[in-house]
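Page 37, continued from 36.
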């Protein structure tokens, strides 16, 4: 979902900028860095509290205001990548079952997919509070496959993280498509062992034989090997 269907990191950075602007101190890059430490979850408000503490601003009122700004700005700033909605429509028209596997909690996932107008394209949304584990553990992937009624070799994992999306997908035996356009992690620039590398979300259509040029004779059913 995040950074595969829409640019979540840019929205998160803008939310950090607005917090810094609100308190009149600090640095947005430093605040964003607090979410990357692994001390709390990537979306945990504890990161905001810890950063405010370094500025000696961690009073209940300021903390509550910053958390509200963070959630409101972050949600307001996400929009689908070019071609996402059209591509999802084409995939549904091709009778493919679409599922989201995300580390966002259920409420967050629903709000983001609703905000971007993408929720109705997906029959299944699997989150850690449903599966019990976060990626790269295979639990969410297995849960999605079970709900789709599919074996791993009948499914494709599309994601922006080599370690949290592509690697577990391959280990389960799924086809994998690396969303290179959404890979924002400066420390993970090695090319993953994915079956396909996408420069844009709509490139999925060509790999599944659903693009405008179908002269190769390969169809989505050939690719997904039902």
């Amino acid at each position: 979902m995040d950074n595969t269907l829409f640019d979540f990191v840019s929205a998160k950075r803008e939310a950090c900028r607005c917090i810094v602007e609100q308190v009149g101190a600090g640095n947005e890059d430093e605040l964003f860095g607090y979410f990357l430490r692994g001390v709390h979850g990537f979306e945990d408000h504890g990161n905001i509290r810890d950063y405010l503490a370094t500025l000696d601003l961690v009073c209940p009122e300021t903390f509550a205001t910053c958390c509200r700004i963070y959630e409101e700005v972050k949600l307001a700033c996400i929009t689908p990548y070019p071609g996402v909605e059209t591509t999802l429509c084409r995939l549904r028209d091709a009778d493919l079952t679409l599922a989201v596997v995300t580390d966002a909690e259920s409420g967050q996932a629903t709000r983001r997919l609703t905000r971007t107008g993408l929720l109705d394209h997906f029959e299944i949304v699997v989150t850690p509070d449903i599966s019990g584990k976060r990626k790269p553990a295979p639990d969410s992937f297995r849960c999605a496959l079970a709900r789709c009624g599919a074996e791993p070799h009948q499914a494709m994992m599309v994601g922006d993280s080599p370690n949290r999306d592509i690697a577990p997908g391959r280990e389960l035996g799924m086809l994998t498509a690396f969303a290179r356009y959404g890979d924002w992690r400066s420390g993970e620039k090695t090319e993953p062992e994915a079956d396909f590398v996408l420069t844009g979300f709509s490139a999925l259509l060509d790999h599944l034989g659903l693009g405008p040029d179908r002269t190769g004779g390969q169809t989505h059913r050939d690719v997904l090997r039902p």
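The chain has eleven helices and five strands. Flag for discussion at group meeting. The radius of gyration is 19 Å.
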